[in-house]
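ENTRY TYPE: protein
CONTENTS: sequence, structure tokens:
***
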Amino acid sequence: QVQLTESGGGSVQAGGSLRLSCAASGYSATMAWFRQAPGKEREGVAVVTRDRRAAYLDSVRGRFTISLDNADNKVYLQMNNLTPEDTAVYYCAATRSTPLAAAGSVLQALHTIAFYNYWGQGTQVTVSS
């Protein structure tokens, strides 16, 4: 069992930045950030594998950066130029599985909630206009 502990959420104005952190208690081959806004389904925001493959939700590409510290089993999400549409509860997710080497597999992992075995408790991000 891998426990995930998130930190770094908060409230910012549009255009601001936040950095989310997630510490895993054990090995994870793939880690990701999901978010869920009120009344909406949970969606994948960014995913990264230990071999440094990454994928992003279209609406955050170029603004968000996911990074993985393999030694410490930590994943980070740097969020810049935030907009009110980014307001949501952000969840860290992890799995010991690795997406296939085939093209598109990491992106598919981003959109497949069932791929992840472990979830954090969530951290609120609120962006005001």
